[in-house]
Specification:
Layout lengths: L9 H10 L3 H14 L27 H14 L6 E4 L2 E2 L2 E2 L2 H17 L2 H15 L1 E9 L2 E7 L4 E5 L5 E11 L5 E9 L2 E4 L3 E2 L16 E4 L5 E5 L19 H22 L2 E5 L25 H6 L29 E5 L4 H21 L6 H4 L6 H7 L1 H32 L9 H9 L2 E2 L2 E2 L4 E4 L8 H14 L8 H12 L4 H23 L18 H6 L4 H16 L4 H11 L4 H8 L29
Antiparallel strand pairs: 1-17, 2-3, 4-5, 4-12, 6-7, 7-8, 8-9, 8-10, 9-11, 13-14, 15-16
Helix pairs in contact: 3-5, 4-12, 6-8, 11-12, 13-14, 14-15, 15-19, 17-18, 18-19
Length: 627
Amino acid sequence: MIAPQQQLSAETMRRLVALGETPRYWRINALEALYEGHRYEGRPSFWDASVPLQERAPVVQAMLARVAVQRLTTLVFGERSFPGLTPRPAVWRTALSDADREALASLLGEIVATSHLSRTMRQYLGEGLKCGSACAVLSLVEGLPRIDLLPVKWCTPTLDRLGRVTRLVVEAKRPGDDGGWYWYRREIDDTSDRVWPEIRVQDREEKPRWERIKPVEEIALPFCPVVWTRNLPPATCASIDGLALCEGMEDELEALDFDLSQLHRNARYNGEPQMVRTGVDPERASPLGASGPGVQAPPDSRFSWLQSVLPQGWRSIGGGSQVAKKGPGQIWNLPAGGDAKLLESTGAGATILQGAVQELRRVVLDATGVVLADPQTLGSGDLSARALTLMHAPMLDVADNLRVDYGDALCEILSGVVRLCLQAGGDGVLLASWDKARAVVARLIVGDRWLGLPLALQWGPYFEPSAADVRETIASARSAAGDRPVVSARTAVQMAARVTGVTDVDAECEALEGEESVVRGVLAAASKPEAEEPAEVPEAAPVAGAEKIADTAMNGAQVAALLDTVERVARGAITREMGLAIITTAFPVSEEQAQRIVGRPEVAGTLAPPAAPATPATPPVTEVADG
């Protein structure tokens, strides 16, 4: 890695600045190499014994930086955790009706789908975690929104007091087809997007004077369509960059790679032990050959004298090989007193290395706040969301902070795309929902001020509830609003909304109230005597103890259970006969009373099932073509 700026000489700094390769560029480049596994390029091979071990490139890399970044990006912007987008009812001096909010919601859903925003936000967050910052440039290509991510090591932004980009300069060098290097420059501000012609890098290593060169392409812009996010910025840091996830952990990660490589070498050496022979005359002993089936042919008698006078290494000429090879079924003939053994280690070195690997891995993960639990630790049972939350608490704290910073970036990206659509005008936008939402978006400009989209992000839980979580939550909510309620019906629905997926508590309460009204109507109709037609069920014979049963009133829990059974019959979830059997068995009512409670046979199955709770639509994941 390049040393800090204060440790570089003035001449080195001059050359770096002239080449455009500032200390910031090399710092970000080293972080990228750490993530991509290229940081050891140029070092000798791990098996090259001619150089010290610490100067070699590890043969095994843990790639822990990449694993940690991918785990966090999936946790924050995964397909199951991508936030729902809800327009707010009002913004400064502007109120939005339900129809206006519905039009905006349709537009946002189409933008998310056509721009593959969930995938792009995972990449955007990954860039920030990898390099310390992330940069996105917004545009419309053939009437559709496009979001391009630029390497931050090429970019130098100018930020206002709110952290918004007012100017972005992109400078980079690229190799040409002729073997030379060429400068690339692009500048984006609130007036235009300019691109300069590529200029060959001179031998004197001086940057060109761009103000003397005319751009080859210039596009007028109404604002600066660039979004810049500093990753996990320190509270007192005024830099344009934040803090990369594994920044400062380079030495620990390198030590982990070396220990893994040493462990691999230990396994290779012990996997093929060393053969040692004792009690054998070194002058007359046959050398050991490579592993394999060594077939020793009988010597030819015509060359017996030749074999006796030739040197030891030449005696295989004209006869069988005299090399003692190791292999199944191969027999070695050793002289009296000779012995052969396989030399193996005790495994103490491997144990030490395994402990060092585990400790280094724990240190890195604790410093980054990432929890990597293997299946053996989690077990095979259905873990509750509460248990998973406690187990992943450090990583969820990091994810909460990322939701704040990158949630703001998501809103800014959507707001910028909608503003570009408004400026395009006419037929410049090929979104089906744009015509309906265009008038609403136009109201978000007051004078020359863009108010931005009034968005609210609906972040869901990190872990889905288990079956036990659902049962316990519903039981608790039902108990709280039962015989002697301690909470209202709305609060009980809100308690269960977390595990049932209910997003609109008021709508769910209205639906429940409507179902209860239907059930009460069925019960009232069933309790009235049949006036027009005679009762189909004959009068039941007196039952011993009936007076005592009639005098015993049911409590609130029994009434709720009875209503639930009647509701199931009305929905058709269970048959009428089964419902009658349950009521007469579980409740202190006679068969005639049960028939009157359930109602006539044609009532069964007439109640419509409740509507499924609305869930935010998740856009499909498709590939975004480069360029």
